[in-house]
Amino acid sequence: MLKSMKVRDYMNTEPVTFSPDTDLFKAVDILLTYRISGASVVDARGSLVGVLSESDCLRAILGGSYFEEAGGTVGSFMSEVVETIDADANILKAAEHFVHRNRRRLPVMEHGRLVGQISRRDLLVALKTFNDHGIPKKG
Description:
By secondary structure, the chain is of the alpha/beta class. It has helices at residues 24-34, 54-67, 74-77, 91-101, 120-132; strands spanning 17-18, 38-42, 48-53, 85-86, 105-110, 113-119. The protein starts with 16 loop residues before the first strand and ends in a 7-residue tail after the last helix. 25% of the residues are buried.
């Protein structure tokens, strides 16, 4: 059953991360290279301190263009309020979060530490896997 499928089983265990000191344009290059919409920001101790999204990058570049000072560091533009999910949460909880809060990805935590990231695409893979193993199809 879907309730027994855990986030940990479908999360990316090696997500792209940034430090707060990463140059904003370097971060944009990395987001584009890996074709991802955002990444967690971790400090030197490995603690989650924020998330940098495409929207954060656009906001920074637009804001800078008005003052002809585009650029800066990830730490200056990241979102510091971070919604996370526990590695042992079931995938239905993650799916509800994505649908109701319009998120594309969530950092995955275990015992207060970042252990991965789960995206909407990861959940679709999980649902497809489950469907391939016996859920009756509608229609």
